[in-house]
């Protein structure tokens, strides 16, 4: 394509640059993954004491990390339950509003995305204490939902922009009730986005640290537990968690490429 | 609201409006207001209150003694009333000691110590540096991914970028921790090459240097700069570049006059996200320094909440951070001439 217009030298320089950049991204992850298989007590690749899988076994017996995993999933499910209806409602209202009042509402609903995570955690912590709810899983769900709902709303908005509204109007003209139209036309049209938004919400929630650490109080999720371990010293068990994350992400990415690469071309 | 009811019927429309209202109020606006309110007051705990209470109890004891030694009923009654008055005073003071009155004002903001103010300014400065550096590093990457490679290569490159992006930021920071630690990869390699001896504790303390946080932070947030730029650059018609080249423009000039102007919204969004994330990052500095390097502002905020238990001061710090971030967003939007709708893509 347009590469033809660039000189061979410039292309070489650019390819080298991209290569270095990708190495910069992947090398630390490779180092971290390799250390998970080193039988040395301290996560290291330079002092190699032999291949082992004992850290995987240690992880399987680590009660706090496993409980953290359960808590993370609970919080993520809670976030989905709160943010999908909220995001959908926001998007439905915005598509029906006029330009002027829409902009104000839009700014408010998008603002959490642009707010530093710790601020969201702090404000939720303070707000819920007024009702006697201390920091914990519930407050974490609320704090995370405030911005994840915005992401869901943006996904729904993009989908609704492509909606053929005459379909709903035709159904209404033919005597369908509003509820029936919503259930049989609007929701099916939005169903794929609901799924995407739920996946995005789950991942965002699962990975979140900066908001959660303020809202979580005395409880913990997988990510906050990892963080508090890191403050006291390094253990190869954390590397095992890292390996699992890397492998899962790679599998998902490769599946995505295979699925996307084939049918189109 | 009328058109909403028209489209979905009154009952459904009110449910939708209710959910949106709960989201706006209970999750966004009121919590923010609560934080602002918390930052605007403090409790005066006067040290001399307990002294005053002690003095009152002494007086009460003396009066009681005098009263017991008094035979005259009229004098006794006078003592009794004095006693009652003193006791009421004492219990009022005690109530104040337990629940000091709130005082409203801006003192939480002005009371910030010079050290904390220095850390605040330094954090903002570092966040700006991270943003600028990420922009410089990412521009060529975004250019290649969006314009200078065939569709197949672009997909592969996108995946190569998405994979590290999808891995938890803590684990990515942890990878750097392993590399830079006392017995980390770099020190290990240096030992292998014979420059240092780890057993004699001759390692290079990378982690005690603020640049370690800096490095890990760029690593963690660099991709938030790449993706918005790729998104806008992908919409650029490549014929424009070809036309400029045919008309004799140099590569530098093509970038300056054709590509960068088109990438403007992406650059603005990337800068806003990177700045916001790095200025408010708690994970990277907390893990990388482990108390050995300099603090970041977010760590001060965390300590106000969970160690000093001074929520008022902590809220004031958080509000200050929020104000700076909002100002940055507004300045970038004005500078690059982009609206909020361009940002949230």
Description of the molecule:
The complex is a heterodimer of chains A (265) and B (345). Chain A has 265 residues and is mostly helical. Chain A has a domain at 63-232: Orthogonal Bundle (MetI-like fold). In chain A, 75% of the residues lie in helices and 0% in strands. Chain A contains eleven helices and no strands. Chain A has helices at 8-35, 54-60, 63-96, 99-110, 117-129, 137-161, 165-173, 178-207, 212-215, 222-230, 236-264. In chain A, α1 packs across α11 (236-264) and α5 packs across α6. Chain A starts with 7 loop residues before the first helix and ends with a helix. Chain B has 345 residues and is mostly helical. Chain B folds into three domains: 2-42; 48-98; 114-343, MetI-like (MetI-like fold). Chain B has 16 helices and two strands. Chain B has helices at residues 2-8, 10-39, 48-68, 73-98, 107-110, 114-146, 151-166, 169-180, 185-192, 210-233, 238-246, 251-279, 283-289, 297-306, 311-336, 340-343; strands at residues 41-43, 102-104. In chain B, strands 1-2 form a two-stranded antiparallel sheet. In chain B, α8 (169-180) packs parallel to α13 (283-289) and α10 (210-233) crosses α12 (251-279). The radius of gyration of chain B is 31 Å and the shape is elongated. Chains A and B meet through α1, α3, α4, α5 and α6 of A and α1, α2, α6, α7 and α8 of B.
Briefly say what this structure is:
The complex is a heterodimer of chains A (265) and B (345). With 265 residues, chain A is mainly alpha-helical.
**Termini gap of chain A:** 17 Å
Classified in CATH, the superfamily of the domain at 63-232 in chain A is MetI-like
What does the radius of gyration of chain A come to?
A: 24 Å
Distance between the termini of chain B: 25 Å
How is the biggest beta sheet of chain A arranged? Answer: none
CATH structural class of the domain at 63-232 in chain A: Mainly Alpha
Summed up, the domain count of chain B is 3
What is the CATH class name of the largest domain in chain B?
A: Mainly Alpha
Q: SSE order of chain A in H/E notation?
A: HHHHHHHHHHH
Query: Level of helix content of chain A?
Result: over 70%
Oligomer classification: heterodimer
Note the total helix count of chain B.
16
Structural class of chain B: mainly alpha
Write down the overall geometry of chain A.
globular
Mean pLDDT over the full residue set of chain A: 87
The total count of helices of chain A amounts to 11
**If classified by CATH, what would the architecture of the domain at 63-232 in chain A be?**
Orthogonal Bundle
Low-confidence stretches of chain A: none
Mean pLDDT of chain B: 85
Based on secondary structure, the structural category of chain A is mainly alpha
């Amino acid at each position: 394509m347009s590469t033809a217009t660039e000189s061979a030298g410039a292309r070489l320089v650019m390819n080298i640059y991209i290569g270095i950049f990708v190495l910069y991204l992947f090398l630390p992850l490779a180092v971290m993954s390799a250390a998970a298989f080193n039988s040395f007590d301290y996560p290291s690749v330079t002092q190699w004491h032999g291949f082992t899988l004992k850290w995987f076994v240690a992880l399987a017996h680590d009660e706090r990390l496993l409980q953290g995993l359960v808590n993370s999933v609970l919080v993520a499910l809670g976030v989905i339950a709160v943010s999908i209806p909220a995001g959908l409602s926001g998007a439905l209202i915005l598509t029906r509003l006029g330009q002027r009042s829409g902009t104000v509402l839009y700014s408010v609903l998008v603002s959490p995305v642009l707010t530093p995570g710790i601020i969201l955690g702090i404000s939720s912590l303070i707000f819920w204490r007024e009702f006697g709810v201390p920091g914990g899983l519930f407050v974490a769900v609320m704090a995370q939902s405030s911005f994840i709902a915005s992401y869901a709303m943006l996904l729904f908005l993009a989908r609704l922009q492509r909606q053929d509204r005459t379909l709903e109007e035709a159904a209404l003209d033919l005597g369908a009730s509003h509820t029936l139209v919503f259930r049989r036309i609007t929701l099916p049209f939005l169903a794929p986005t609901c799924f995407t938004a739920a996946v995005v919400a789950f991942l965002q929630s699962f990975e979140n640290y900066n908001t959660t650490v303020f809202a979580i109080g005395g409880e913990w999720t997988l990510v906050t537990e990892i963080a508090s371990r890191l403050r006291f010293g390094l253990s190869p068990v954390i590397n095992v968690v890292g390996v699992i994350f890397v492998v899962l992400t790679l599998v998902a990415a490769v599946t995505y490429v295979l699925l996307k690469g084939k049918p189109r071309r | 609201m009328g058109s909403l009811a028209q489209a979905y019927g009154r009952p459904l429309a009110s449910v939708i409006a209710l959910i949106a209202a709960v989201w706006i109020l209970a999750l966004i606006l009121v919590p923010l207001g609560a934080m602002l309110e918390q930052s605007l007051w403090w409790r005066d705990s006067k040290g001399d209150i307990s002294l005053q209470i002690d003095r009152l109890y002494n007086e009460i004891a003396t009066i009681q003694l005098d009263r017991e030694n008094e035979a005259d009923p009229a004098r006794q009654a006078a003592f009794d009333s004095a006693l009652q008055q003193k006791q009421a005073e004492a219990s009022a003071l005690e109530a104040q000691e337990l629940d000091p009155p709130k005082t409203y004002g801006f003192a939480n903001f002005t009371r910030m110590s010079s050290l904390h103010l220095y850390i605040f300014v330094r954090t903002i400065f570092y966040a700006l540096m991270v943003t600028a550096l990420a922009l410089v590093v990412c521009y060529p990457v975004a250019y290649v991914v969006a314009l200078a490679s065939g569709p197949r290569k672009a997909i592969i490159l996108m995946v190569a970028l998405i994979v590290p992006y999808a891995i938890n930021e803590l684990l990515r920071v942890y990878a750097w921790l392993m590399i830079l630690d006392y017995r980390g990869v770099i020190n290990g390699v240096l030992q292998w090459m014979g420059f240092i001896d780890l057993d004699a504790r001759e390692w290079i303390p990378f982690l005690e240097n603020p640049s370690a946080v800096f490095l890990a932070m760029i690593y963690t947030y660099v991709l938030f700069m790449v993706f918005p730029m790729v998104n806008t650059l992908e919409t650029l018609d490549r014929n424009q570049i070809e036309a400029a080249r045919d008309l004799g423009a140099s590569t530098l000039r093509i970038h300056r006059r054709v590509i960068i102007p088109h990438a403007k919204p992406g650059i603005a969004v990337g800068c806003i996200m990177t700045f916001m994330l790095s200025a408010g990052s708690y994970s990277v500095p907390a893990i990388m320094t482990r108390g050995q390097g300099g603090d970041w502002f977010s760590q001060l905020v965390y300590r106000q909440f969970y160690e000093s238990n001074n929520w008022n001061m902590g809220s004031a710090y958080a509000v200050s951070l929020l104000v700076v971030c909002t100002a940055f967003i507004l300045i970038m939007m004005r500078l690059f001439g982009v609206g909020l709708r361009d940002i949230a893509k």
